[in-house]
Every structure is written in structure tokens, then in C-alpha cells.
Amino acid sequence: MSSKFFLYLVITPLVIYGLSSLNINGIFKKNHVVAANVFYFLLGIALIYLVTNCLYDVFLYSI
């Protein structure tokens, strides 16, 4: 297995736990549940990607 894949496995639960603390009810209008779910999904994918690549680059170039 690749080290980047291992980082994805470690970072994904951390990002999901971090996203659970967000309260975005004030951003979306009432009864726009689908829009809120899509926002959470896209934000989660983006954060997982960014944090994983940041840590991978730090570990790669610090050696």
C-alpha cells in the first residue's frame, strides 16, 4: 500500500469528526436539506484532499 493511501485512511475520520462540529444551519434556508448535504460532502472531500496532500508534502520534503 502507498503511504498516501494510508494517510487518506487516517485523515478521513479526523475530517469527518471535525465537520461534525460545524453548524451550518444559518447558511442555508429552511428545507434545503439536499443543498446542505451536498455542501458537507464537497467540503469533506476538499478537506480530506488538502490535509492529506499537505501532510504528504511535509513528510516527503522534510527528509
Word description of this protein:
It is built from two helices and no strands. The protein is mainly alpha-helical. The protein has one domain (3-61). Helix 1 crosses helix 2 (33-61). The longest helix is centred in the C-terminal third of the chain and has 29 residues, at 33-61. The radius of gyration is 15 Å and the shape is elongated. The two termini are 20 Å apart.
Backbone CA Rg: 15 Å
Poorly predicted runs: none
Order of helices and strands: HH
How much helix, percentage-wise, in residues? over 70%
Q: What portion of residues belong to β-strands?
A: under 5%
Count the strands? Answer: 0
Shape: elongated
Mean pLDDT across the residues is 90
The biggest sheet, with number of strands, parallel, antiparallel or mixed sense and barrel status, is: none
Total separate domains:
1
Distance between the termini: 20 Å
Helix-and-strand structural type: mainly alpha
Number of discrete helical segments: 2
Describe the SSE topology:
Blueprint lengths: L2 H17 L13 H29 L2
Helix pairs in contact: 1-2
Concise synopsis of the structure shown:
The chain is mostly helical and 63 residues long.
Keywords:
mainly alpha
